[in-house]
Amino acid sequence: MNTIIVIPCFNEASKIAETVEPLTAAGYTVVVVDDGSSDGTDAVLRKLPVIHLRHTVNLGAGAATETGLEYARRAGADIVVTLDADGQHDWRQIPDLIRPIQEGRADIVFGSRFLRPEDIAQIPAARRRLLRLAIRFGAFTSGLHLTDTHNGFRALSRKALEQIRLRQPGYAFCSEILDETARLKLRVEEVPVTVHYTEYSRRKGQSAWNAVNIMIDLLLRKVLR
Prior knowledge:
Layout (H helix, E strand, L loop, with lengths): L2 E7 L6 H10 L3 E7 L5 H5 L5 E5 L5 H14 L4 E4 L11 H9 L5 E5 L4 H4 L4 H18 L11 E4 H6 L9 H11 L4 E5 L6 H6 L3 H17 L1
Parallel strand pairs: 1-2, 1-4, 2-3, 5-7
Antiparallel strand pairs: 4-6, 5-6
Helix pairs in contact: 6-10
């Protein structure tokens, strides 16, 4: 199956090559969407063997992800894997992530940090509490009961890729994917994955207050719709 890796990217000049090079060395087609970076990320990407797409202004993680997904749709991808640009996802787990799609058991696969004790132990305590809140929130708003709802490491089949269109430009797109998956009645599986939290990835991650604001906004949209 034709598998394309989509990486939304914003101000990752110091990290993006380290994230991308093992993927291209392994033979994956990699699409990096530079979401209006101002730190020289564009210059770094021009030297790498990737499909380099660029927003001239910063539109948000959801918009960058949708740009990458649209490229994959037009390129005829059978499977799309999304992962973060900061290197916290273990690319060696991609075969495990896409296997349920390859074997015809799932339309969309979510990586989960909460299926194995050793993966849970990697999550900083404060982040763990926030993620558990997000999990309950996601189940409430979408009706989809998963163990990890805001992990950027996921895989979409061609069916899911064709049917899901992201409209939330910011990080709320993670919840939007859940809503769409439930609405479209797509077949779902979760696969255990390891997220490596470094000082760099912790600095780059969204704040707890921003995450709460996203939840409030989504809840209001749900109630007022």
